Amino acid sequence: MTVDGATPTFVSLASPTARRAGAGGAPCQGLYWSAAGSRPPVAVIASHYNVDFAEHYLAPYLASRGLGFLGWNTRYRGAEDLFILEHALIDIGEGVRWLRTESGVETVVLLGNSGGGSLMAAYQAAAAGDRYWRDLDARATSALENLIGADLYISLNAHPGRPEVLTAWMDPSVTDETDPTSRDPELDPFDPRNKPPYSQTFIARYRDAQRERNQRITDWAKSELTRLETAGVADRIFPLFRVWADLRFTDGTIDPSDRISPGCYAGDPAAANRGPVGIGRANTLKTWLSMWSLETSACRGADRLRQVALPSLVVQSLADQGVFPSDARAIFEALAATDKGLEFLPGRHYFEDDEPAREGVADLLTDWIRSRL
After folding, report:
1. What structural domains and CATH numbers belong to the chain?
2. Global pTM?
3. Residue-wise pLDDT tens digits, 1-34
4. CB distance 262 to 206 below 8 Å
């Protein structure tokens, strides 16, 4: 099969900490895109916490420009509720290793797109010697200590970090985590009494309450995990309600951009906030502590970006409904790189609204990568 001049090749690999499934599938899978018959010396790898990036929209665009592109999925593709950071890093490491040893790639570019921004930064930080992970068994520790670093890093429409984005989107008016109807009207951003434009007093109180909600869940998760382990139970699943409530979704004067307001990735934020679909909608206790907790998660963006000294490019589209100009600037400032750039472009989150916008971002990334070779 050829797509726009690019040929995808299926790649399926075992992981040092995960055996093949009973039906035969390997935990790490993806598609390697390249121009037909070519063996590119430079390749991009993109991965996400749970979204399937095998057919990433940029793959054929970059392949047609002479780059390789590995859309790479860890064992947590579609399994956000089970995510554990250390094992995801090990799985990404197998993709990087394959590029270096099997496909003949000399220059590896980490593409941190959307939620994958902080994940790929966490990978590079670990490969560079940042020993932030938890105590693990010898096999996992050895795999983490032998991750292969990349050569370039790109942040594309990336959230600052997994705990940060969830907390910024949380509805802090929730009074009972087991009841999606519970609410404190004084903190409800959709209550007519709190309509936008929001006052600075309300914004400050709201942001504090969001952090407090995250901490309450963290405190409960730690306590519940201790209780379960005492009873010989390893973990449990719990739901998370109402996470489409970033004030920037409903008030376009906060962090202004070209986005639609009110609006979010799921459409009308008031309706989305009452529905069952959203980030973090289900978690194990260990996943919450690994991915979402402001206190315990190593997926916080700035902590890892401070260890990324590779030449780096931060790109942000101005009509993005869920990543905002201040997020891009924060990522840019946090990066340890001395060679780094920040670019703002027209378009939405995946540039899905405009074909010329996709061509434009593909040209920008390709030109930047080639200028650093």
Report:
1. 6-161+299-371 (3.40.50.1820), 164-256+263-292 (no CATH)
2. 0.96
3. 556 678 899 999 999 999 887 888 999 999 999 9
4. no
